Sequence to fold (115 residues):
Amino acid sequence: MKPNRYENRIELVQGTLDMLILQTLRWGAHHGYGIGQSIRAGSADILQVETGSLYPALHRLERQGWVRSEWKQSENNQRAKYYSLTASGRKQLAAEQNRWEQVSAAIASLMSART
Fold:
């Protein structure tokens, strides 16, 4: 039987991808592929963002004014769109981090409850 490549995939909680992208951009501007690689590497290869999710999220964040983009030459001398965090994106990230801490504490509490 052929292994399913999605077998060990972890689905992100609704809205979590936006927070992860904003967090990644705190460390500096990246092109889309670099953002995906940073998320993967930063999660010890557990979180892998598919292109079909990443780019729509980046476009949504740009429309909301939380990231901006500009075309530049990449490390391998190709034209790529680089995304960076805006001031309102930093505020949004702080709000999302606070919400994430509340949600993850609530889930941890529920999961450790003895019945």
